[in-house]
Design a protein that fits this description.
Blueprint (H helix, E strand, L loop, with lengths): L15 E11 L5 H10 L12 E9 L4 E10 L3 H5 L4 H5 L4 E7 L3 H17 L5 E7 L11 H11 L2 E4 L8 H11 L20 E2 L4 H4 L5
Length: 218
């Protein structure tokens, strides 16, 4: 009598979870907080109050069956007094692995402020930081003063990812953060150094044990 063997399917290994610090920068009232709220909670508030200092949120993006990126999101205030304060502004983008610099397509001055933030990041932040430029309030296209072509040309010149977004309608919001996640150099985490432990530190593999990551098991 013959016996049939039960075919065993190989057990799929769980997706690795990588953590990166992401900072949002830009002039006040361009919609940074609204973009984060739409990304994290899929909500929009017409009467959202301005951020004081910075707000902290987290959200994950699944790239595929093998990798998931967790963003630690620092949403900074846009008032110039925070940018001018050397002891405060760098604190939010220090050791940041990626950044979203936001401007308002209906305000030409906000793009100029965004350009100054990009220069500051390129001068002060990790040289390998991934920067995305987001032209927000795409739903107000009738009041547009910054053309897509102008912003795209600048983004190409500066080596930035570029999206026009609308926190109100959710246009391109998920695509913006997903593209940043795809751009993160997961292969560079092979050295397994926690974020901020050296000039080339990129992020943290959250699947590793504290001992492997060089930390304490506490």
């Amino acid at each position: 009598m013959s016996t049939s063997r039960q075919q065993q399917t190989p057990q799929q290994s769980p997706a690795k979870l990588y953590q990166f610090k992401l900072v949002l920068l830009g002039e006040s009232a361009v919609g940074k907080s609204s973009l984060v709220l739409r990304f994290v909670k899929d909500q929009f508030d017409d009467y959202r109050e301005s951020t004081i200092g910075a707000a902290f949120l987290t959200q994950t993006v699944s790239l595929d069956d093998n990798a998931t990126v967790k963003f630690e999101i620092w949403d900074t205030a846009g008032q110039e007094r925070y940018k001018a304060c050397q002891s405060l502004a760098p604190m939010y983008y220090r050791n940041a692995n990626c950044a979203v610099v936001v401007y308002d397509i209906t305000q030409a001055s906000s793009l100029e402020k965004a350009k100054s933030w990009v220069k500051e990041l390129q001068r002060q932040a990790d040289p390998n930081i991934v920067i995305a430029l987001a032209g927000n309030k795409n739903d107000l296209s009738a009041r547009r003063v910054v053309t897509t072509e102008e912003a795209q040309a600048y983004a190409n010149e500066a080596g930035l990812l570029f999206f026009e977004t609308s926190a109100k309608t959710s246009h391109n919001v998920q695509e913006l953060f997903y593209s940043i996640a795809k751009k993160m150099p997961l292969d560079m985490l092979a050295n397994n150094r926690p974020r901020g432990t050296g000039p080339n530190a990129r992020g943290i593999d959250l699947n590793r044990t504290p001992q492997q990551a060089g930390g304490c098991a506490c």
